[in-house]
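Aim 2, interim progress. The first record below pairs a target sequence with its structure tokens.
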Amino acid sequence: MQAKAIVCRSNVRQWAAFFSAYTSDNNYCFNTGWYGPTATTSESWLDALRRYYGNNKELCYCPLAKKPVIEGGRHPFAAFSTVPSFPSFGSQGNSGSYGMNAWVYNPPREVTLNPFGLPTSNNWRNANVRGASNIPLLLDSMWIDAWPDTNNEPPPRDGDFYGSGPMGSRQIRMFCINRHEGTVNGAFVDFSVRKIGLKELWKLKWHRSSDLNAPTPDWPDWMKGFKHY
């Protein structure tokens, strides 16, 4: 497990380098992400960075999470596949087990709300921002991207995205998965890479208005023994 966690962190470090190259080539800006009914897969981070990683599929997966859910994979040790969820993207789709903090996307200026009705004025959009070392970019994940916040509730069980409340209030659950002994591997907007404690996810600056002093969640039983931050 530990050796595979090290390989996973190496993968994330490679992705940080690809994001750094992409932003250097695009006036420090990140990719647009997909917004609205006309969005296509070419706006996802996996496609935006394809020219940098050469479609190397091995880099798309944590070595502990290679089997997609649609093929019998089980969270937290499962990959995602966009094909069944977004068939309009074509048979190629995207699959992997890392996800982007969607608040980093740089959507078109005319797009004022994200898919959950939250303002895109909170998006970071580029890498040249203050506090970049505490802004998540890419992490171990159950889905290709998510819009987390510090007021989101933790999953009641490991790998359980579902539960009560609006979908927008559950986004942090995509990253709150016990894949590496109480941690996930993650890259930040300054392109640094490190382990992130699961409870630490609530101390990160996901978007411009994230409240770092938000009340501590009521931790579910499976998280109570993890390190506090």
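The second target in this work package is listed in the same format:
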Amino acid sequence: MYIQEKWSSKNSPPGTVVMPIMFHSISGDTSGSTISDSGFHALMQELIKTGFQTITTSQLADFLDSNVKIPARSVVLILDDRRPGTVALDFMPYLNDHKWTLTLAWPIGAGEDSTDKKPAVNVLPGEHFSSLWQQMEAYNATGRLDIQAHGVNHNIIMGPDSTDEFLHSELQGSIDAIRQHFNNAPIAIIWPGGGFTQRAAEIARPLGYRLGFTVNPRGPVMFNWVPLADKVQAERATWLAEGPVDDPLMVLPRYWDTDASAHIDEVIQVGQEAAAYAGKNKTVEMEYYNIACEAQYGPIP
């Protein structure tokens, strides 16, 4: 099935690559997890220039599961936390101009406060909202947002000491609130604070979660290819090891917005090298499929 999904002309060709990028604050200067306004616009322009197109988490899940067709250079733009001003003032012009989507990692919390440094309400002329929920519901109605889970108690990570009851309440609570306000159930959990465990992933799966995102900028992802580490590396001591979770799609990497521009060429090169390697092995793989697989699975579309 892997060979069929890999080489079907209906699916994504080998070398199709996805670059998930994590955003927090956008402000005057770049520091910590805050990217400057100029740095943000430079990153957006570089993605446009190099031919990247956005996809949603649902598209990414279908691609990783069965190589469903997506743009050859895809990017998942993920904005963490409640930041309506950033959505409207910074992202929305790009979303509208290029028919892009923005994945919003939505922490439930009280639902009314915002950590956004941009104005929280009435950010554009003619807009008047009585609450943050109402404002984001209106933005979601544009069809440009892909709202996914970011926990309930946003500042409490889901770690090794978390009880099953806490993990379930965080994951189910996100589903309930997002379904109520945005009329869809999340299929991705953007792990709050970057914390994750095997048990958290095990509880998330039956609830309908198909993906999980870390804060580890370990690299891009491709069909049947997710970068992982089985133990913490000394030179990357703050990156949790994903391998022990034993579920690669629940521990996907994300580049930080503050240095994502420096990795765009690297991501493109990874895709090109993967395409070249696949091309060298295509004849052998097709011959094997014809001999060992076609009788059971049929010809490759």
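The chain has a mean pLDDT of 93. This observation will shape the mutagenesis plan for the next reporting period.
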